[in-house]
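Why does residue order matter? Because the sequence determines the fold. Keep that principle in mind as you read this record.
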Amino acid sequence: MKKILRNRSVLGLLCILAAGGICLGLAPPWRRLLAQETYVIEAVEYIRAGEQIQGGQIRRAPAGGYRPAQACATQSGQAVGQYARSDLYPGDLCLLEKLSPVPLAENGVLGGLDGSQVAVSFTVLSFAAGLSDKLEAGDIVCLAAGVAGEEAAVLPELACLRLIAVTSQEAGDVDYSRRPLPEEGWEHTATLSVLADPMQARLIVSLEQNARIHVLLIWRGEGGERLLAGQEDVLEKIRSGELPASGLSSLTAAGRPKAPEAAPEAPQALPPQMPETDSAAAREGGG
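Structure:
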C-alpha cells in the first residue's frame, strides 16, 4: 500500500478524482446558493424621523456580499406606508427597528397622556422669542410673558415645562441638533409644544391670546426631572391655596403686589451756628 501511495502516477490520479468529485458534487449547490441573492431596502433620499415612507423614497437593491447584522426590510411592502423612527439618509438600510406602523406621536409622549397632563402649543412670535432656533424636544424651558407697555414677568406656574415638539410653518417637526441638507433649507420655529397640567395649559392659552411669550432655556439633557418635581410642588401649593394663582392681571402694574411705601425722608437739620469768637467781635467793633 505504501508503495502504491508513493507512486506519483497513482497520487496524480487520486487528486484528479478528488477534484472531479468536488466540482460535480459541491459546485452545483454552491452556485445555487449564490443565485439566491439577498435584496435589501434602502433609502434613496432623506427621510425625516416621523415621516411616512413613500415608494419613491426607497429602492430594492442587491445586498451582494454584505449581510446586515440586524433584521432589514427585504420587500418594498415592508417599508412603504411605515413611519421612520429616526432620520434616514440616502443609502441607509431600512432596518425593521427603525420603522413603525403608527406615527411617532402615538408611540411617544402624546400616546401616553392619561388626563393628568395635556399637550399644548403656542406661537413663537419672533426669532428671539424662540431662542433663535436653538430649542430641541426634551428641553426644560421657562415661559416669560408680557403685555404691551408693561414689564415682562415669569409666572410661578410656568417656571419649568418639558418641551415635547418644535414645529415649523409646514407643520413638520424640526431638529436643530443636526445641520440640514443643502436641498432642505433652514426651517424656522413656528410653534412650540409643551407638556402641562390643565391649570398650566389654561394659563398658556390665555397668554397666547393676550400677551407675548418669550422662551427661556433652563436645562438640556439628563437630570431635568428634579426641576419638574420642584415645579410640581409649586403647583400643589397653588391648588391647596398656600400660594395665589397667577393670571393676566399679574402681568400688569395694577395687578402686581404693591411695594410698601417708603417713609418720607426727615428734613435735614441745619448745621448749628458757631459762636462768634473774640477776634470776630473785635473786628466788628473796630469797623
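The first helix runs from residue 2 to 6.
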